[in-house]
Amino acid sequence: MNLKNKRFFIAFLFIVFCLFLSHSDLNAQAIPRISIGVDQATSPAEVANSLQILFLLTILSIAPSILILMTSFTRITIVLSFVRKALGTQPTPSNQILASIALFLTFFIMAPIFKDINDQALQPYLQGTLTHEEFYKEGIKPLRAFMLKQTRDKDLALILNASRLPKPNNADEITLPTLVSAFAISEIRIAFQMGFLIYLPFLMIDMITASILMSMGMMMLPPAMISAPLKVLLFILVDGWYLVVESLVKSFKF
Predict the structure, then answer these.
(1) How many other CB atoms are found less than 10 A from the CB of residue 159?
(2) Best-predicted range by mean pLDDT among 27-31, 124-128, 159-163, 225-229?
């Protein structure tokens, strides 16, 4: 079938399809229409429901930032990235796998905190015993306590001095942006410390392999080609993933 016949055949099928639609019952069927608009409220309850929906959408929009900067996710992600870099097996495990492992480990570590938020804030709020402001105050308390335990006094003092705010008399007077900033700095510091300790033995394997190859006159052979299987073998023999996950879980203070 040449090009001219193909075009004629396609045009014929299109005309037949249009004729079929014009004589079928599809046109008689009602097609749903979705519309979003703003109407005038008839009662205070409708206004309250609208505000609740708006509040929920606001929480969902900042949920990624809350997950990254106010939980254990940052430390876990950085340490797992150091492990992959030290092994020299990039891109294995992939970024998706590392992010998934970090996400579920975060849920596991933060489970007691989330339970306290649910018991002290979410359930009373859904039952109508807490207002929006009370829900926020009660819900943030477990997260504040968790972040304070992980934050160094030195990092907290740095952010307080940089903010030029009056010195708080107690931990409850520390503003949330100040606490989150100090917590993020402390998490990165601890993650880099753990990453250095993980990186050190694999660096020694690279140096020993490079020295042996140079002494044998095999300078054209990349040391990484020989050291990579040795590092993977060492990581398997010492049950590396078990040790890394165990160290991560135990590194958080509760």
Answers:
(1) 21
(2) 159-163
Q: How far apart are the first and last CA of the chain?
A: 75
Task: Indicate the Cα dihedral angle 79, 81, 86, 87, nearest 10°.
Answer: 120
Place of tokens 């796998």: 97
Nearest to 183 by CA among 62, 77, 69: 69
| CA 196 – CA 175 distance, rounded (Å) | 32
Contacts of 219 (CB under 8 A, 6+ apart): 213
Residue count of the chain: 254
C-alpha dihedral sign at 244, 110, 101, 66: negative
Computed on alpha carbons and rounded to an integer, the radius of gyration of the chain in Å comes to: 29
**Alpha-carbon distance 67 to 179, whole Å?**
15
pLDDT tens-place string over residues 20-78: 455 544 444 445 555 555 555 555 555 455 666 766 677 677 777 777 888 889 999 99
Task: Respond yes or no on whether the N-terminal peptide bond of residue 222 is cis (omega within 30° of 0).
Answer: no
Mean pLDDT, to the nearest integer, of 92-115?
A: 88
CA distances in angstroms from 195 to 20, 127, 190, 208, listed in the order given: 67, 45, 9, 20
Distance CA 67, CA 147 (A): 13
Q: Tell me the pTM.
A: 0.72
